[in-house]
Structure formats: structure tokens, C-alpha cells
């Protein structure tokens, strides 16, 4: 007898001999090839489509004959007639292997497809969602062998798809008998398998899917969500809205105070933030135009205070030392428990918090940026009201948070504003003339370019946003307008009439309207940025101390705001440690990406949970060196750390303006 | 060095040597002795109390010196001062073993105590409830090692009591931080361990318990409940109320019809029965005078239609062949899911159904009567509107149900009524004079005894209840008033003026008021009883066929009604197979007992689930021989089966009254 035919699967390269007549799907399963199937080989779902290759494959050492696979059978022909089979494709459950053959499994037939990410330094996301669909044909009731409809459904899932010890959501039981009869004893189940494999939805007969999920980044200011196709990983809709809790306080601590001062205040904030999330999900479903019944999984990231408020836990203890979390571990629950008006079987997954001030958003950043998988030492800073800082590599990861305050978001800045059309976001100052040029959000032209005035006529020039204030202060430092200690020089000292006195200090005039409205950078603004950046740097430096290093190999700026910060300017200010500029990258909304990864990959949930358990948590409030680092870091870039790499590429004039300020009489040590 | 001291525990007899200085509790754990402890040896709970024996124990071969145990320490002295320690008792966690000693573990210090049942033929109930209390001292938050309050609580349970991988009910999280601080970082947790060990309630500091449970027998007519102390097994309160569903139909099928005919009818019945159960639980809590927060476990038994309605499942399919259950397996859920206003952490356990007509009540009867553990072949009949019948022994158990109708409950009987004061419940008829005497519920005197008239003046003599109708018909058969075929003879044929014509048949006058109101047994009444008992017997006979036997070793009559049936009369009627009369016993409310067992013993839940899976289910509706057995069983006792054991002890006159009835012309074969 001849040898059994050889089957080679691509792209996996898995190969083996199977008895002639083995369906491709069975061969794939035997060889551990990732080939999808919802209907268990009944020719219904077409998820197991493969592309056989014919002819000579010298690479694999086989020649594939035209009759290597069985001819189309009735099921395949019928499928093609009704639903159309792509040229060159076969149904893996129907086509039988007769002779040596090379079978390509296209990406869409793989369960564990990869979603390619744009940035080179990060891993692709492998799809491995908690949800899958399963089509089965259920035995009808038989009075000679009485059994419940549920038992026969579970029996079919076991016998036909090898799915064992399934639970079923109780909410499905009242409709179970009708669904089975409506589908004429065929049914498609959505199975959620995170900790306990559970049937969470049922459709009569064959339901093709796909199923959807929403990843939510629940910030103190904005709530952002992405609606994702769980089969392809594709983002179908993205949306954001203002966190309606803002009316109880702009920043987190004022919300905690509200909860402490007002009976029922925490519950009220819980209610409104859940309503906000619910509204956002509704918008995403509408925007994507999907059936809400197919939206069955949600993932959430947020800071500790938002976490407690969203889960209905009083944030009282987070408002005072020792900042004890009620609950920090990852939470799995029914989405309905969060008062969300989603399908009754929808699940919610809340990523773990790291510590009282380091949230699930930081955990999500860690999941996305994977410092624990990095061979070089990486510092990840999620820049926001509260900076969350990670430092680590494969040998270990540490985390802390640092109270930067809202200056980086344009608050506490005299001309500061949120990033919105009309806000100055980029600034350059000529080191010779001390003349500025800038760009505003909503316009691609520099302020000195022709047509700028017309282009911004609509929005106006309304203020300076977070990234703009960082750039302008850094540019002022590089142009010698402000000294290392943070003092703005006078018009005479600097040599430009743009330095205008304001009380006992000076301001730098960035822009003046034809009607005389000015946008200036005051010395108070510089002070606010100094405080914020010093806090951020001191946190990072503290982790570096703990790790026993003076430098890091690379820096990742995360956070929606981090995406807009210029690495050079951040380093001139001394926000981040000295480091080659090309080693400073932006991760964009890494927290949102982490939430999306947790939605698309069940193993990633275990990974982030293990990662968070393993992270060394540093509480800056109890570290005596934090204060010391903070004081040194108020200088620009720093009064203690030399920043040689920065100085090699950027001029940092050695100016000093010690007159006309409250501290004027004190001689300060300079390194600038 | 001398040998380690020997410790002998009674009553278990477990013995071993332990290093001198070992606390008794530790020794007990090492030797696998069942000694309770809630506080993990902190001298708080006193659950580990033991009674050391001193002097010579020749049986054990040891002499116990007065200083065999360490002297009282401060903890023990303090406990005694504040709470009082019984004479001769020691705290097992404090007293250390210094020399050879005999230690008695009193019943109240055992977790797995036995609850002795009154009937000799059944097992005692071993206590092994799903709920236990655990006292721990939790570490305070530490900013140097940030962790959540929950993590520290779970860590304490693991470190101090070896309780691992606990879940916690989400409803406890909002109050967690307050409970810990209120108890000054000491807390008592109630842990429910059925499938997943879960914290279901928390009390600040030390909470002594006990915890309570309620076992509910949810019948179509009445809902009965017992409130039980889960530590002692003691029943603290029992109560019952009318099933408020009765207004939708007396019998189950009329309720199913109501659900089929009325939009929302099933939901309405679900609501009212849950309200009924809720009211019953409220009454039990009030009667027992306990704190409702300590009531944390509920068990339920009921027939399939009540089961579906109670769980919110439409009973539609149960109203028609093939009688498919939606769900039959045991159900575990939060009691709140059943809209019961109990403690938020309270759990509900619903015993499994056996088949479409054989309910969780029958499963509970099986758990209580344990045919699967019986060496002799036992027939268990739960007599009610629908008789549920079990036949089996250690080799296997079969089950079926038989539609007896409500005649046994006094319905469809001309003078029938529910069992209530004034109802005739016992009857004797003199075989010579054909004169009856009877007893009514609420009076211990026979109707012929002096003072009877006065004694029943209050209640009157209002009708015949179920057990009364069985007795009177059986007595009429033994007295030759009714023949084997079920015809009542005329006054002339029988020889008593109590046989009075009524249409073309006769009635037997059981009682006549001074004012002329009569209580009679009509030939229609006899017919109704014949139909009911024939259905019951045919079901039993069918199982015997399947098992391949003509006789059974013993019969157990279960059901509240079964408790009142006289075995002799039941056998004269041919309700149950021929069998030595002393082998017919009553199990009382075995379904309720089964529910109580499932409440008190977690292993019993697995046992009943395995038992139900293993039971061979027989659907009488599809068994051709059922009809044949039914026809033969309409005769009293039976037209086919000879009943030799019965005939040996009871006269069954060979009379025949074939005139004056619709069937009068047909000659019937008699065996009487």
C-alpha cells in the first residue's frame, strides 16, 4: 500500500501524513493548525475556508496533483451556489485530502490572527478573544429517554464541538425552549471563556456573527471608547465624550471631596459616570451600525478614583493616607451589574489597578508597551493630571505616580486652555531675534506664513494648550529668555521688547491681536510648568534610584497628551531623563490600546494580572528622596543631573536673571 | 529523652503522639479529628472546646496525670471570666498537650455532627453545611507595600485559616473598607462553599453565629418551610402557607393552561409564588426570632411545573408531549435572583428534577429514603395529586410518575374535603353488622364513644379527607359492601339499610346529622378512588416489570398525605403491591426532609445530583403495558395480581353486585 498523503499547511509550516480521505479541517486539528470552525464541519459557517496550492513546491519538496483534494461535494456546491465561495477556496470541512497537498490557511480563517500595529517597537496583537460562536444541532426530546432541553444542548456542544462543562447564563433559560424550537433544533451559542466557559447568548439556527466588543478608557476628563470586531480585530467606531462627573469637580481630588462632604455623593457620581459610559456605548453601536445583541464583551481601564466610582465603591480612603484601595485586582462581571443597557449576557472586564495612585490605565499602558518584555531599560510615562510612571525591563518593572497637577493640560496657565481649535500647540523662538512663530490647532501654517491670518479667522487664536506651553517654555529657555531657575529676563536683559514687566516679574509676549488682546507667558506660568515637570521627573528619578541607574535606554511618552509632546522640548524642560532624542517615542493612547488588547486577547488578561502583581509599587509620598529630586528638578533642565546628551544637541544659554523677582536677592547655583 | 506524649481523641478513637506543648487543636488537625474552629486558634470563638479525661483509662491503656495539659493561660482565663467555660472544658487552641491524655470532643465542638432521625430505617443526617464562619485579623494598609483591602483580607484568610482562592460577592465590596475599619482590622466572614468558595457576608470583629438556612417544599397546594440552625441542625421554626398560585388553578395542568392562554400568565404566576415563598421565609425568620442577615442558605424542592414557574421558566412544554423540561439539573443561584428579600449574599439551591413529570420533590424523597443504598428492593411512593414512584436498591433505581388525580386528597369525592378539623380521617366497618365508626380530625374519640358528639360540636363533621376515603372504601371492601369490581351492593344484597339507592347505583351512608344532612360514599366516589389507585399501582407495577420482579421487599409511603395512609387499607384497595404489612412504612414528608438534608450537607447535593443522573426514567405515557396494568388494577385489590400476603391476614369477601349498575349486564371475572 502507498504511503498516506502528506499535507503541508502554510503559513504555519505544520506538516504530517493523514489517511487518504481525511477532511482538511480534521487534518488541521490533528496537526495543531489554527483553522477556525463555528459549525463543527457541517458546511454552514465557511470559517474553515482554505486555499489549496497546486503544482510543484520545491521549497516543501512536494508536487501537488490537480486531484490532490476530493472534488466538490454537494455541501460545497450548495454553499457556493447560495453564498459564493471565493476563487481557489475550498471548505476545509468538506474537501478531503487524497494526495500530497499544500494548504494555505488565509488570515481570515485563523482564529488567532494578528492585528498589525503601526509602531515598530511594539508587538502585534494576536486575536484570541474570550468570545466564540458555536453552531450545534440538538437532539429533540424523546419521551423514552427524558432529558431537559438544556441537557441536550450541552450534550450536543460536547459531542459535536468537544465543548465541555459549560455553564449557561440564567437569563437565557426562560427563552431556551423557544430558541431551540424556532431554529428547528439547530442553534448558535456565543460562548464566553475567560474563567468559566459560559453560554452568554443564543440564536436560533445558524448565526454568522461577528461578535463585537468595546474597549473603554474612562478618564477623569473624557471617556473614550472603541467598538471592535472580535473576529478581525478591526475598530469599527471610536467615540469620546466628556466625563459627566466633571460637574462634581474638575480634578479627582475635588470629586473625592465631593463624595466625602455630600451624603450619597459617591453614589450619585457612580450613577452619572455609568450613564456616560452607557451613552458612549450607545453612540458606538449606532455609529458602527451593528446589532447590540452581538456586543457581548467590554473592557475598561481607568485611574483608581474613577475605578472605585465606576464600580460603586466609595473613594473615601483614596483621599487620604495610606490611600488604601478597596479592591485592586482585575474584575470580571456582567456588564449589567454596571447598569449598562447592553445585551444581558455581555461581560465586563476591568483591568487591575497597580496601587492607590497607579491605575488600571497604567496597567493597560504596561500591557501595551510591555516593559516586562523589553531587553533595554525603558521609562514609560503616561502624562496627564497625575503622571503614572513605569520603569523596567525583563528583569523587573517598577511603578509610581507623581502629582503633576493640571498644568500640562493647560490649566493653571494664564493663557492656558484645553487642546481645541484655536489653541497654540507648537512654538518656535528665534534664538537671535527672540521672535516667536507658532501653529494653532486646526491650521497647518506657521503664524509667520502667508495666509495664516485668514486661515485662523474662523477659530481665532484663543490660548495655549498643554503641548504648546511646554514648547514655548522650552523655546524660551533655549533662546535665553528664561534662565535655568525659571526667571524671565527683562526687555533689556534679554534684548527684546516682548519681555514686558508684570508686577515684580516679566512676561513674554507670544501674540497680540490687532485689537490689543495679548497672549503671554507669565513667570507664574513658567513656575507652574516647573512644578509639574519637577514632579514628573522626580518620580522617574526615584524609580531610577530604586533600580540603581542614572540613565535609561529609552523613554516612551504615553497618554493622549503625550502623543503631542515634542521629545526635545520635554527634555529641555527636564521633564524626562537625559536620553538620546531618537530613543524618545510616543505611544499615543497606550491605555486605550491596552484596553483593546485585553478585549481581543484573553491570555493578555492573565498577562496584565501577573504583570501587575509582579510590579514593584513605589509610593512617592513616603520616599524622602522624592522631595530632594523634586527640588533639583525645578531647575530647567535640572540642578543636579547634567543632561550631557541633551546639551550635545541643544543650546542651553547660561543666562541668569536674578533682579526684579521676589527671590531676586538670592544667588542661585546654576548649571545652565 | 522521653517519648512524645500520646493523645487519644474520643469518640473518634483517633490517636497519635505529638511533641509536648502541641495545642490540642493542632493535634486534632494533625490526626484528622473533627474539631471546629472559627477564629483559627485565637481563643475567640470557643468552638474548639474539649473535655479532657483524667485518671486511668484501661480501655485506651493510658493513665492521664492531672498536669497532662498545660495550666490555664491568660486567654483561657479571660474567656472564662467574660463568657464562662463549662466545668471540665478547655479551649482546644490554648490547652497544650504535655503528657499522655484522653480528649473528648463533645458533639457541639464537631463540625460534622450527626442529626439523629427518628426512624430506624434511615440514615442520620451528618452536618456538613455549605456555610461556615471564619474570623481573621487583617493587616492594615501600608504605603510602603501598597495593596488593596480585599487583597489583605484574602491574604489573611489564606495565611491564618488556610482558605485559598476565595471569591467574594460583589455586593460586599462597597462596604468592605468600612467593615474592616469598624472591626479595627478584625472581621468575620461567612464563606459559602458549594462549587466556588465565596465570601457571602462580613461582620466587623468577631461574629459568633450561628448561620441559618431554610428548606422549602414548594407544593402545588401548600408551601412548607423549615428554618434550620446550620451549626446544630436544629429546626427552629416550621411554617406553611397556601400556594397563592391556587387562584390560577387548583391543579398543575390548569396552571399550565393559564400560562398558555394568558399573555404574561406564566410571569404572573412566577411573581405570586415567589411572593408566597418570600412571605413564608419572613414568617419563619419572625417565628425563630433570628437576625435575617444570618439566614444565608436556602434549599428548594418542587414538582417540575412549580419548578419552572418558580424559576421564571414558561411551563408551556410541560403541558404537552413530549413534556420537555427546559432545565432539569440542580440550580445554584443567588436567592435575590428569585426576588426573595433575604440577605444579599444568601444562596439558593434547587434540587434536580428527575424528568418532565418527576420532580425535585421526588429527588428529595430519593435523597431522604436512599433507595440506592438499600440492600432490599424498596418501592417508594410519594402520594399526592401526581404520584411519584421510585423502585430500586443498590443495583439501580427507576422512577416514574402516575397521574392519580386529586381523589386521594378528597377532591372529586362527593363528601370529600381537605384534611382539616371536622374531616373524617379514620373509619372502621363491622363486617357482621356493616355499621361504621370513625374519627374526625381534631378529636381522639371514635364516633361510637361517649362524649364524641360533644367533642365534635365545635368543628362539626364536615366531610371525608383523603386518608378517610381510602379507609372507608377499603373497609367497605372488607365488609363485603363493595365488590372487587367496585360496585356497592343494595341494602338487600349487603344486608344493611345503610346501602341506599342513588340513581342506578347505591351509596353507603356513613353518617347522618340529627338534622338529616348525610355523609355517604357513592359508587362514583368508589370509582374515583379506583381510578386513582389503579394509576398508582400501574406505575409501580410498570417499574416492577422493568426490573423483572413480581414483588418488592418493602414499601415506603411518602408525602404529607402518605403519612396518614393506613398500610393495610392501602393494600386492600390494591394501591400498592402485595408485601408484608410490617414492611410498609411511612416516611412522612420525605421531600421536605430531603430538602433539609441538602441544606445541611453539601455532599448530599452531589449525591442527589449523581443519583438523579443515574435514575432510569420511565415515562408511563409511552409504555403500552401501563394501560393493561391500569385496567387490572381498577379491581380491588387487583384483577391480575393475587395479593397472597394480604389475603393471609385480611378477609376479602367474595361478593359480587352486578345488578342495577350501568355495567350490570356484564359478567366480570372475579378473584375476590
Task: Explain what the structure shows.
The structure is a homodimer of 672-residue chains. With 672 residues, chain A is an alpha/beta fold. Among the domains of chain A are: 6-109, Beta-grasp domain (Ubiquitin-like (UB roll)); 130-204, Roll (Ubiquitin-like (UB roll)), CATH 3.10.20.880; 212-350, Domain of unknown function (DUF4445) (Nucleotidyltransferase, domain 5, 2-Layer Sandwich); 407-522, no CATH class. In chain A, strands 18-17-16-19-21-20 form a 6-stranded mixed beta sheet, with helices on both faces. In chain A, strands 32-31-22-23-24-33 form a 6-stranded mixed beta sheet, with helices on both faces. In chain A, helix 6 (265-288) crosses helix 7, helix 8 packs across helix 15 (602-614) and helix 10 crosses helix 13 (567-573). Chain A is elongated. The relative contact order of chain A is 0.09. At the A-B interface, helix 3 and helix 4 of A face helix 3 and helix 4 of B.
Task: Please sum up the structure shown.
Chains A, B: This is DUF4445 domain-containing protein. With about 675 residues, chain A is of the alpha/beta class. Chain A contains 17 helices and 33 strands.
> What's the Cα radius of gyration of chain A?
30 Å
Low-pLDDT runs of 5+ residues of chain A are: 660-672
Query: What proportion of the residues of chain A form beta strands (DSSP E)?
Result: 15-25%
Main interface pair? A-B, 41 and 41 residues
CATH overall fold name of the domain at 212-350 in chain A: Nucleotidyltransferase, domain 5
User: Can you say what the CATH homologous superfamily of the domain at 212-350 in chain A is?
Assistant: Domain of unknown function (DUF4445)
Strand order of the largest sheet of chain A: 18-17-16-19-21-20
Amino acid at each position: 500500500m502507498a504511503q498516506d498523503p502528506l499535507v503541508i499547511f502554510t503559513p504555519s509550516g505544520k506538516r504530517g501524513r493523514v489517511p487518504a480521505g481525511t477532511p482538511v479541517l480534521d487534518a488541521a486539528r490533528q496537526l495543531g493548525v489554527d483553522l477556525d470552525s463555528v459549525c463543527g464541519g457541517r458546511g454552514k459557517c465557511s470559517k474553515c475556508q482554505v486555499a489549496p496550492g497546486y503544482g510543484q513546491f520545491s521549497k516543501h519538496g512536494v508536487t501537488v496533483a490537480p486531484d490532490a483534494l476530493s472534488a466538490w461535494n454537494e455541501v460545497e456546491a450548495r454553499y457556493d451556489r447560495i453564498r459564493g465561495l471565493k476563487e481557489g477556496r475550498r471548505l476545509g470541512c468538506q474537501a478531503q485530502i487524497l494526495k500530497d497537498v499544500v494548504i494555505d490557511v488565509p488570515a481570515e480563517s485563523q482564529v488567532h490572527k494578528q492585528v498589525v500595529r503601526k509602531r515598530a517597537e511594539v508587538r502585534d496583537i494576536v486575536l484570541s478573544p474570550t468570545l466564540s460562536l458555536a453552531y450545534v444541532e440538538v437532539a429533540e426530546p424523546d419521551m423514552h429517554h427524558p432529558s431537559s432541553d438544556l441537557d441536550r444542548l450541552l450534550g450536543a456542544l460536547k459531542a459535536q464541538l468537544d465543548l465541555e462543562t459549560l455553564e449557561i447564563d440564567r437569563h437565557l433559560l426562560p427563552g431556551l425552549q423557544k430558541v431551540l424550537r424556532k431554529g428547528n433544533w439547530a442553534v448558535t451559542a456565543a460562548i464566553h471563556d475567560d474563567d468559566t466557559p459560559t453560554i452568554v447568548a443564543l440564536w436560533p439556527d445558524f448565526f454568522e456573527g461577528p461578535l463585537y466588543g468595546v474597549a473603554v478608557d474612562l478618564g477623569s476628563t473624557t471617556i473614550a471608547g472603541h467598538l471592535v470586531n472580535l473576529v478581525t480585530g478591526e475598530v469599527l467606531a471610536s467615540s469620546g465624550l466628556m466625563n459627566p462627573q466633571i460637574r462634581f469637580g474638575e480634578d479627582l481630588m475635588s470629586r473625592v471631596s465631593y463624595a466625602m462632604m455630600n451624603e450619597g455623593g459617591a453614589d450619585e457620581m457612580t450613577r452619572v459616570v455609568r450613564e456616560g459610559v452607557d451613552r458612549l456605548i450607545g453612540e458606538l453601536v449606532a455609529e458602527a451600525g451593528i446589532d447590540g445583541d452581538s456586543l457581548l464583551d467590554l473592557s475598561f481601564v481607568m485611574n483608581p478614583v474613577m475605578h472605585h466610582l465606576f464600580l460603586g465603591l466609595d473613594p473615601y480612603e483614596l483621599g487620604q493616607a495610606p490611600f488604601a484601595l478597596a479592591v485592586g485586582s482585575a474584575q470580571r462581571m456582567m456588564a449589567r451589574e454596571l447598569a449598562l443597557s447592553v445585551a444581558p449576557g455581555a461581560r465586563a472586564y476591568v483591568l487591575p489597578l497597580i496601587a492607590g495612585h497607579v491605575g488600571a490605565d497604567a496597567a493597560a499602558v504596561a500591557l501595551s508597551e510591555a516593559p516586562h518584555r523589553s531587553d533595554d531599560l525603558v521609562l514609560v510615562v503616561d502624562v496627564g493630571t497625575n503622571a503614572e510612571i513605569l520603569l523596567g525591563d525583563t528583569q523587573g518593572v517598577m511603578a509610581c505616580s507623581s502629582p503633576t497637577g493640571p498644568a500640562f493640560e493647560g490649566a493653571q496657565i494664564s493663557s492656558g486652555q484645553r487642546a481645541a481649535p484655536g489653541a497654540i500647540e507648537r512654538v518656535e523662538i528665534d534664538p537671535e531675534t527672540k521672535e516667536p512663530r507658532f501653529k494653532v490647532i486646526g491650521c497647518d501654517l506657521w503664524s509667520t506664513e502667508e495666509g495664516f491670518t485668514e486661515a485662523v479667522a474662523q477659530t481665532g487664536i484663543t490660548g495655549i494648550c498643554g503641548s504648546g506651553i511646554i514648547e514655548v517654555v522650552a523655546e524660551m529657555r533655549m533662546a535665553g529668555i528664561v534662565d535655568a531657575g525659571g526667571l524671565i529676563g527683562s526687555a533689556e536683559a534679554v534684548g527684546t521688547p516682548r519681555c514686558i514687566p508684570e508686577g515684580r516679574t516679566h512676561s513674554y509676549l507670544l501674540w497680540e491681536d490687532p485689537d490689543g488682546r495679548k497672549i503671554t507667558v507669565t513667570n507664574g506660568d513658567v513656575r507652574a510648568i516647573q512644578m509639574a515637570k519637577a514632579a514628573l521627573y522626580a518620580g522617574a528619578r526615584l524609580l531610577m534610584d530604586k533600580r540603581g541607574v542614572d540613565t535609561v535606554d529609552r523613554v516612551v511618552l504615553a497618554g493622549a497628551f503625550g502623543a503631542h509632546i515634542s521629545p526635545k522640548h520635554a527634555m529641555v524642560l527636564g521633564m524626562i531623563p537625559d536620553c538620546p532624542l531618537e530613543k524618545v517615542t510616543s505611544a499615543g493612547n497606550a491605555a486605550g490600546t491596552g484596553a483593546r488588547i485585553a478585549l481581543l486577547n484573553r491570555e493578555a488578561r492573565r498577562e496584565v494580572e501577573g504583570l501587575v502583581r509582579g510590579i514593584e509599587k513605589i509610593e512617592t509620598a513616603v520616599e524622602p528622596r522624592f522631595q530632594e529630586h523634586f527640588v533639583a528638578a525645578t531647575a530647567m533642565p535640572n540642578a543636579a543631573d547634567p543632561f550631557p546628551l541633551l546639551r550635545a544637541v541643544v543650546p542651553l544659554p547660561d543666562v541668569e536673571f536674578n533682579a526684579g523677582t521676589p527671590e531676586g536677592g538670592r544667588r542661585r547655583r546654576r548649571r545652565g
